[in-house]
Amino acid sequence: MAAKGGTIKPLVSILIPAFNAEEWVADTIKSALQQTWANKEIFVVDDGSTDRTLSVARQFSSRSVKVVSRGHEGAAAARNHALSLCQGEYIQWLDADDLLAFDKIEKQMEIALRSTGKKTLYSSSWAHFMHRVSRARDGHSALWCDLTPIEWTL
Fold it and tell me: Which of 17, 52, 67, 101 is the most exposed place for a label (fewest CB within 10 A)?
């Protein structure tokens, strides 16, 4: 997808593992769809939910939202499966009960595209909330900075 000036915007894959998340998964997918970064694909991998997670997620199935169902193997297996399916040059992990700020990916991509490192973990601020996004409170952690893989591991 071309950006201003004719440059190609990299594809970002938003990967959502989901297990028994029917209460939240619709809002999570909406927050992924509402990203201002246009060149994106979204994969929801249902990990054998016993509630309506899969049927809720399938309501969003489209060219840009792929929904896959698997037997219950755990979050790591669902994440790995999503990673095996995606085509993006960049990965945005998103838990099925989390939300993204509408411009989160765009802001990170602005930094990523200026970066010279090929393997960097891009982080950002976050906010904790219960039930109402309007009551979100900023949270900071040691991971609120961009890190090389070795720095992140340490």
Answer: 52
- Dist CA 80 CA 63 (whole Å): 21
Closest CA to 86 of 6, 24, 149, 10: 10
Across the chain, mean pLDDT equals: 85
108, two tokens: 């990170």
Rounded alpha-carbon distances, angstroms, from residue 19 to 5, 29, 93, 99? 42, 14, 15, 16
d(C-alpha 20, C-alpha 5), whole Å: 44
Give the domain ranges of the chain.
4-100, 115-154
**41 by DSSP, 3-state: which?**
strand
pTM for this structure? 0.80
Q: How far apart are CA 104 and CA 106, in angstroms?
A: 6
Cα–Cα distance between 123 and 112 in angstroms, integer?
A: 11
Q: DSSP letter at 145?
A: S
Q: Domain 4-100 classified CATH 3.90.550.10?
A: yes
Tokens 């297996």, residue located? 77
